[in-house]
Amino acid sequence: MFSPTVLRPRWVKWLIATLLFLMLSACVDKPSTLERIKEDGVLRVVTRNSPATYFQDRNGETGFEYELVKRFADELGVKLEIETADNLDDLFNQLGKPNGPVLAAAGLVSSEQRQQQVRFSHPYLEVTPQIIYRNGQSRPTNAADLVGKKIMVLKGSTHAEQLAALKKQNPAIEYEESDAVEVVDLLRMVDEGQIDLTLVDSNEVAMNQVYFPNVRVAFDLGNASHQSWAVAAGDDNSLLNEINGYLDKVEKNGTLQRLKDRYYGHVDVLGYVGAYTFAQHLQQRLPKYEKHFRAYAKAEKVDWRLLAAIGYQESLWQPTVTSKTGVRGLMMLTQNTAQAMGVSNRLDAKQSIMGGAKYLAKIKDELDGKIAEPDRTWFALAAYNVGTGHLEDARILAKKEGLNPNKWLDVKKMLPRLSQKQWYSKTRYGYARGGEPVHFVANIRRYYDILTWVTQPQLEGDQVVEGNLHVPGVDKTKPPQDSPQL
Ligand code: BLG
């Protein structure tokens, strides 16, 4: 018979041994994904090389997903390493690999099928799948109208899943899935009439409308869905929780909205007519002046696309316009500015661009040394429009209000006050139409963004080239960092 008094010490020994074992094994346990990222100092992300996600421009790496995920890496205090997948299947495969990327930030919509493979974060962007057709063709209005059309979508996309579901109900619908193209290619193919229709998300349409004047939305196919980041399947929630916390934060503090406005807000800001018009002017007008923009921008060490954006804002790239106030030409120089910059004929496009470039460089140079980039560029643009004196007044007002006179976000709040007597009567330079430079800067930033996406990085050695507009997304050249980082 066992005596409990005899057994107790053995029980205790067993218990201690078990506890020790558990504690030790906890110590040598695998670190969580998040711990590993922090230990390695690197966040490895897989994405797609496309204008809506990630691409290289003259300023380096950019794109909506890139900017969102770069901020996340910065918050973790680690380096960001981007890898691009050839197609969606490849992307999901990479995410599942041991020692592969830990996160996919690629404009992915969560679907039931995909949830079997990966786990999705909180959503950050609402998108609607849209059927796209070519202007001038008959507009499809419902699923039955898809019959007999040449339709192409991305292989492995949720759009392919959607079409497969439609085909079950209506077997006459035919479509092709391709893993050799990106969304911009699909839109271009519709624009050029190589295919009749495609199905893409509304954010891609909004972003690319300015490049493809013939592309039109036929109808929304199904309900809005949400884009999320994806992590590999499993039960380690460390990274996913961190991502969700970050996404919630950027949603609340307005960062996410600012990014959405910059990448997808063109049509909202320009309006549909404005977007088509810009796309047309890009093809018809800019090529005539591009070499002057490039040459004088280079001479004055400013970004040529910024100069071109000013020219578009001022005159829609028309060399002979004159404002009510007698300001004239492609870069809208006043008589005084033209004289000071050595411009004898303001209606001569080349001279106007030369004068504008010189003036921009001069006022930028003269700004307070405490104003750092990119704000410095926005201040220079404001001064181009309203003059350095009035800008200085707005900076002083900002300081009096406890705002930062070296930050554009703060000074732009003060500028409109220069047209109200209670404020301008206390300033040195007095009345000014202070709302004008605020719109001026906002519009130019918009045009500048678009121009950076549609122009190739300058060739090696900065040769002056003409007519090299393209739709971005595939350029892998690593360009120099001499432009304002937006
Ligand atoms: C700018 C000048 C500044 C000048 C300000 O006016 O013109 N910029 C250029 O000539 C490039 O030099 O500053 S100041 O010299 O310190 O006084 C203020 O006078 C031009 C602006 C004026 C504006 N467009 C470039 O942005 C313009 O034409 N406004 C009138 C529009 S309308 O007539 O009401 O339609």
Provide a short characterization of the protein structure.
The protein is of the alpha/beta class and 486 residues long.
The molecules bound to the chains, other than polymers, are: ligand BLG
Oligomer: single chain
Task: Please state roughly what percent of the residues sit in beta strands, choosing from under 5%, 5-15%, 15-25%, 25-35%, 35-45% or over 45%.
Answer: 5-15%
State the total count of DSSP E strands.
Answer: 13
Overall, the morphology is globular
Largest sheet: 6 strands, mixed
**Helical content band:** 40-55%
Instruction: Give the count of helical stretches.
Output: 20
Radius of gyration: 28 Å
Low-confidence stretches: 1-5, 456-486
Structural class: alpha/beta
- The average pLDDT score comes to 87
What is the terminal-to-terminal distance? 83 Å
Descriptive overview:
This protein has 486 residues and is an alpha/beta fold. Helix content is 49%, strand content 13%. The chain is built from 20 helices and 13 strands. It has helices spanning 4-27, 33-40, 64-76, 88-96, 112-115, 158-169, 183-191, 202-208, 238-252, 255-264, 266-284, 286-300, 304-315, 335-340, 349-366, 375-386, 388-400, 408-414, 421-424, 435-454; strands at residues 42-47, 55-57, 60-62, 79-84, 103-109, 118-120, 125-127, 129-134, 151-154, 176-178, 197-201, 215-220, 225-232. The strands form 3 sheets. Strands 1, 4, 5, 6, 7 and 13 form a 6-stranded mixed sheet that branches. A 5-stranded mixed sheet has the order 10-9-11-8-12. A two-stranded antiparallel ribbon has the order 2-3. Helix 6 links the parallel strand 9 (151-154) and strand 10. Helix 13 crosses helix 20, helix 16 packs across helix 20 and helix 17 (388-400) packs across helix 18 (408-414). The chain is globular and about 100 Å long. The model is unreliable at 1-5 and 456-486 (pLDDT under 50). The site of ligand BLG has 17 residues, from helix 14, helix 16 and helix 17.
